[in-house]
Amino acid sequence: MKPLGSKVIVKVEQVREERKAGTLIIELEKSTEDHADITKATVIAVGPDASVGESKLDINDVVYFETHGGFKVAIDDKEVVIVDIKNVLVVI
């Protein structure tokens, strides 16, 4: 996968939560309810122009991005999100 321009491909992590009754709940990793439009993900591919100033994203960076700022797609049976660098809010 090679994103073009300032695009970044990220994989949103799933959170597993097991309840006392044994029911397994899987949710996408999101920040607190106060910031429900922000999603945490791991960078898996970086376009050639995916940088802000001198800061460039690298593969395996963990980022928070605007949830509605990306496009969900299935590539090689994996669901990923294509995000423009301008929608990445922070690198952890």
Protein architecture, described:
With 92 residues, the chain is mainly beta. The chain has one domain: GroES chaperonin (10 Kd Chaperonin, Protein Cpn10, Chain O), CATH 2.30.33.40. 0% of the residues lie in helices and 55% in strands. The protein is built from no helices and ten strands. A six-stranded antiparallel β-sheet has the order 8-9-1-4-7-10, with no helix packed on it. The chain has a two-stranded antiparallel ribbon with strand order 2-3. A two-stranded antiparallel sheet has the order 5-6. Strand 5 and strand 6 form a beta hairpin.
| Order of adjacent strands in the largest pleated sheet | 8-9-1-4-7-10
Beta strand count: 10
Strand content: over 45%
Q: Main sheet?
A: 6 strands, antiparallel
Class by alpha and beta content = mainly beta
Q: Classify the helix fraction into a percent range.
A: under 10%
Radius of gyration: 14 Å
* CATH homologous superfamily descriptor: GroES chaperonin
Task: Give the quaternary arrangement of the chains.
Answer: single chain
Global geometry = globular
CATH architecture type: Roll
Q: Indicate the mean pLDDT.
A: 81
CATH topology: 10 Kd Chaperonin, Protein Cpn10, Chain O
Order of SSEs, N→C?
Answer: EEEEEEEEEE
Low-confidence stretches: none
| Count of separate structural domains | 1
Q: Termini distance?
A: 23 Å
CATH class: Mainly Beta
The total count of helices amounts to: 0
